[in-house]
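Re: your question from the hallway

Yes, I did run it. Sequences:
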Amino acid sequence: MSNKKHITLSVNGKTEEFLAEPRELLIYTLRERLNITGPHIGCETSHCGACTVTIDGKSVKSCTMFAVQAEGAEITTIEGIGGPDDLHPLQEAFKEHHGLQCGYCTPGMITRATKLLEENPNPTEEEIRFGMAGNICRCTGYQNIVKSIQAAATEMNAAKEAAE
Amino acid sequence: MKDEITREERVDNLKGMGCSRKRVEDARFTQGKGNYVDDLKLDGMLFGDFVRSPYAHARIKNIDTAAALEVPGVLAVLTAKDLEPLGLHWMPTLAGDKQMVLADGKVLFQGQEVAFVVAEDRYAAADGIELVEVEYEELPVIVNPFEALQSDVVLREDLVAEDGSIPDGAHGPRKHPNHIFTWDAGDKAPTEEVIASAEVVAEETMYYHRTHPCPLETCGCVASMDKVNGKLTLWGTFQAPHAIRTVVSLISGIEEHNIRVISPDIGGGFGNKVGAYPGYVCSVVASIVTGKPVKWIEDRMDNLMTTAFARDYHMTGKIAATPEGKITGLHCHVTADHGGFDACADPTKFPAGFMNICTGSYDIPTAYLEVDGVYTNKAPGGVSYRCSFRVTEAVYFIERMIEVLAIKLDMDAAELRRINFIKKEQFPYTAALGWEYDSGDYHTAWDKALKAVDYEGLRAEQAQRVADFKAGKTRKLMGIGLSFFTEIVGAGPVKNCDILGLGMFDSCEIRIHPTGSAIARLGTISQGQGHATTFAQILASEIGLPADSITIEEGDTDTAPYGLGTYGSRSTPVAGAATAMAGRKIRAKAQMIAAYLLEVHDNDVEFDVDRFVVKGAPEKFKTMKEIAFAAYNQAIPGIEPGLEAVSYYDPPNMTYPFGAYVCVMDIDVDTGVPDIRRFYALDDCGTRINPMIIEGQVHGGLTEALAVALGQEIAYDDMGNCKTGTLMDFFLPTAWEVPNYETDYTVTPSPHHPIGAKGVGESPHVGGVPCFSNAVQDAFRPFGNTHTNMPHDHWRIWKTANDLGLHD
Amino acid sequence: MIPAAFEYYRPTDMAGVLSILAEHGDDARVMAGGHSLIPMMKLRMADVPHLIDLQDVGGMSDITVGADSITIGAMVTQHDIIDNAELTAAAPILREAALQIADPQVRYIGTVGGNVANGDPGNDMPGLMQCLNASFTVVGPDGTREVAAREFYEAAYMTAREDDEVLTQVTIPLPAGGYAYEKQKRKIGDYATAAAAVQIVKEGGSCVSASIAMTNLSDTPVYSDAAGAALVGTAVDDAAINAAIAAMLGDIDPTEDNRGPVAFKKHVAGVILRRAIARARSRA
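Structure:
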């Protein structure tokens, strides 16, 4: 039973191939097999969103998906969103507006927010709160997270306008 | 030398105290480069996980590990029998009790650790757990502490002598096998006398429900025993790494210098990560046995069901007053449910923490508090969830009693508070239950808060709403929640605060580098509070080097000076003070160096922002950067080279932050759904080090308060089954359920703290819980409500309305 | 939380799915998004030795709005429903309900098929589909059959679908009139304390048809024929609404849980239904 499966994923633009048991959850693939430890494990029942990654353009809780389900998928984690030389406006905004404290929810929070702003570049506060409701933060009370996302949206829209 | 920039610019360049310096921690966290314990991966690392009891009370007849050991990858299954020869099948708790590391003949709560499966990976460990066969014989379950004190069922047979007598516990005589301690404070007879003879007495019984700190990161560790060098390294989610090192040394016999405890980044603590848990002990043993690193990480159910509950206080109060509302006496009795083991994390002399701050912000001449601790078949813990030791319970108690008294007196609750506040001129104020409040200006804060929310306007609106409701025009009621709290934080003076005999001082060690940057190490550990940012700000102001040139390091016992860790809002009051004091030692030496360099007497130079200047000749100066270089590179007669300092700070007193909160809530009477329309929070935490971080702490603390007041609980059924083991049922609010908060402040510096700071992380939780609760209760006050218990989830609010006949 | 080991299959057509189901009987389970099943497997409350991932089967991801009916493939997600303007124009109650399910991440993955086929009384789509008088297409070894949503649910996690069958499509008669999906829950991500799906058609001030179904108030969704009937022929005035609520209360059978005791749930069910009817009436 439980023959290992050959799995190919594209993670942050890099092709990863490996053999894994079907029961290997995607979050463990990322964290333990690929050493991509930005996404975290919080609740394990798809409530907290600390494990959020983007899979083929969707925000997904990677603790509730087997790696084998993601065969062939393109995956982006916080590590693929921006680094020291190319910080994403959301990463800048979270720093600027104190949108994090312990930092544990932050990778999932920012990853989810990238998708939210992609779908809705001008969200109202209510839309941000609704669109971020799959990510729990225990530290900030969300007020500065909302502020950070609003600021990033403004920044991104201005940059877009300047480019046009 | 000519100065290129103004003094104001020099101050700004330091990014010292009082500015909203951006956090230095955030670069790594926003890029997914935090370093949490579960991120750690060592060569050959094994995984350990627990077989847990499905029963709340049962005798263990047999444990068969054979099938589990057959699972490929499973290397060992530890049981109490394996730990017994090492003397590690039980461990001491922080409260002077002992706790089974692995079930020794019986289990006392659901989820209790029964066996530890060690495997090559987490999959094999999980499969092994399924195959450990444990034969249980169920015993009668007690989940109610009042029943426990009447029952013939003995939970802790180990604490009853062979002749049936009940030996004293760590906190004195016990009056029943299931009784842990009686602890009291104040004057019993005089208080009873005042209450008996008072013209007005309000009485109330309230239950502060069991809940849990539930940080987003669960508890966990990696133990690595290097048998070649005899060194044990233990990484883990420890809010008190040095204390953990000492405890590990005491129970394992490994000398303390051979143990290195490291707290890496911690994903929130809120009290959950203060204690020592069986997982730590088992990981250490497993690493010693296998010679390999062993990782243990709780899953969320383990976390909610087994490590560190909070609260669970059954409180009965009597408050006496004159007809005009002047409070004359307060009596409080608590029956405290501690679960199967007494693992409360309190200073040794305070088995009920600082519950004796329960006279609150009021000048109450006579008071008495008595607390009975009781064993039940529930998980151990009793930690201070985002508060100093049991202060949340104390403040909730007094802030509810005030409301109950206001109802009895038919008085406005804001006015009742005002006429009973300790007056500014009474500080330092010694309360009836013993604490000496260092400072406060309650009337100013209260007036500012009430004015900010237009309190009278709110009351007028509420009166109109009640009229409309009675006229059938609306089904929504409006509640105005008030709370005024005084925290007691910064444990604490070694003369009365220790944990397991470890004095609760804290520490800071500073090294200035020759080029004028620095590293400072502290005995505390941040879990999101931003220590690396704020402690550098304290130092910047004290030693005149830019905060950006100062690295703050915590959490590694091999490098950091000994300290008792971060909880109870003690970091700023204690380690923050140590930081300032160490900085002043640096400055004192720098002054001598500067004087030498400027060729004047020591007393002829004075410190100015980032330099020493010759008094009366400000154009003659040496910057701290220059002084640092000289300290290392210039032979100065009578002064040894280098620029370093260490301070161990034993605070002379606690600090007493306070605040005034107002919540406006609309309540749907028919569904029980509350809607928070407005929340105003005024905090006075003394000197403000970083306003941005203070505001963030307030937002977070209020949100945890909202959760606790409005739904967050650890609930059990009669069989001791935990009903709230996942985040479906354990209420952590999302962005959708949380309002925006208005923050405000006054500044009343602590007179005994070197920089006047008091601590703020926990105030909003302490003050927030009664404020949210009072808002709910206040909505129903016009209809005869006196008190209902939290959590005010939909059905309980609905029940309040229903009991008052509002659905008829 | 690690699930027990299992065998994973990813067939590319329905024949492949059915043959695996035939071979392994109730040891096999099909999975769409897995957001209901995987947590149960992690908690080891569901034992699934053979897991069949449907994502490569194809043909189950379309939303088609026809002249008389709407078809929704089983693999259509909640997010697809929210995002589909044509569907929202034709049957706006679907979007209104889908937005109240779980959270954004879960809605990207959670499917209509999984939601209706699972038989979880907490799921919102089953009651909604009963309200809309949908039918489910079920494919098995003996071919394809249609089962009315109102006949589908037998008990918690027990449905008219046999172990060797797969639910492939939902067909909804084009709804008419006013609608509302009203749900009370403790927080985002929670199941309903009580939820009501209502469709009302009015002609000349009088209700000509009404359909009412309730969620998480019994071990199955509750389609209350009597509640709908109480509105028909009335102006949907207070008296009629009271009668509908009374009828609905006779059909539900809630149990106590962490959301509250039975009396509370019944009361809230009445309040929620009243609000849903009022909102549907205002849109009719």
